[in-house]
Design goal:
Order of helices and strands: EEEHEHEHEHHEHEH
Shape: globular
Radius of gyration: 18 Å
Oligomer: single chain
Mean pLDDT: 92
Strand content: 15-25%
Largest sheet: 8 strands, mixed
Strand order of the largest sheet: 1-2-4-3-5-6-7-8
């Protein structure tokens, strides 16, 4: 019976590596970022650890990024065990993500990862950071991921009002209606340390035009069903489509925001992770079937 690979810290503490639980190498690789409004969350939360373990079990080596968090907004309580790394707003988390990306490329052979089958992704604010990092890679003509995986992302600081059907669903679920305009704008202002006006595209990637996205990699977006942030992912998906890019936008039925962080509540987290695992496995199949 083969030994189960054990996650371990690497890249100077920037990542926790979850080796793929497979016998054959190389494997796909995924750089993954947890959410938390840019100022909260950690790599032990289910949205990081459970996601990474599940995808590693399915055959992908996952690098969970312990990126620098933004300063705590007024009224937010500091966690009982505050991470030792200094807090910093944009572009600290984005810089950390690109540092992990470079480390993964440099260490791919050691990790048993195929550099042609690399993906990047994240959940909520982590999905924003991942998307912005890809835009920076494009802008600097650097090695791009083969796939982008986004779970219920926030991509706009000032998002359009939800349509009538979503608005009615939010009104019927007050507990899920927590991402109104003021809350979202305030989250971004805290991340940026100032106004959202003229903010860098990497901080608000939903503002990208189809010209900005002309080289954006194939993308799978899984949005929450009753989640006002869904409007920003729908907007981004439309822009990707107008740019002629490969994008799939899925609304996970019956979910509100953050279902990957609640894997014990029904089947939604498992369904989303199965979608991600299938796309990552597809990278493997595509590479093996190539002439």
């Amino acid at each position: 019976m083969s030994e189960i690979p054990t996650p371990y810290g690497a890249a100077g503490g920037l990542v926790r590596v979850y080796p793929a639980r497979v016998l054959d190498r190389p494997t796909p690789g995924l750089v993954w970022l947890h959410g938390g409004g840019f100022a909260a969350g950690d790599i032990d939360m289910p949205e990081a650890d459970h996601v990474a373990r599940t995808l590693a079990d399915a055959g992908t080596t996952v690098l969970s990024v312990d990126y620098r968090l933004a300063p705590l907004p007024d009224g937010w309580e500091a966690p009982a065990t505050e991470p030792g790394r200094e807090r910093a707003g944009f572009p600290a988390a984005s810089d950390d993500t690109l540092a992990v990306w470079d480390w993964l490329l440099a260490e791919a052979a050691t990790l048993g990862v195929d550099p042609a089958r690399l993906a990047i992704g994240g959940a909520s604010a982590g999905a924003n950071i991942a998307t912005g990092a890809v835009l920076r890679l494009i802008q600097n003509d650097r090695h791009l991921p083969a796939l982008v995986l986004l779970a219920y992302p926030t991509l706009l600081a000032e998002q359009p009002a939800p349509g009538g059907e979503l608005r009615a669903a939010l009104d019927a679920r007050p507990d899920a209606d927590r991402f109104g305009p003021d809350a979202v704008r305030g989250m971004y202002e805290n991340y940026l340390g100032g106004s959202v006006v003229d903010a860098p595209l990497a901080a608000i990637p939903g503002l990208a035009t189809h010209e900005d996205l002309a080289e954006f990699p194939p993308t799978l977006i899984v949005a929450g069903d009753v989640d006002e942030l869904r409007v920003s992912s729908e907007h981004f998906a439309r822009t990707l489509t107008s740019a002629g890019r490969d994008v799939e936008h899925v609304i996970e039925p019956g979910t509100d925001h953050g279902h990957l962080n609640r894997p014990d509540e029904g089947d939604a987290a498992s369904l989303t992770l199965a979608r991600f695992a299938a796309r990552l496995a597809g990278l493997t199949l595509s590479a093996r079937e190539a002439p």
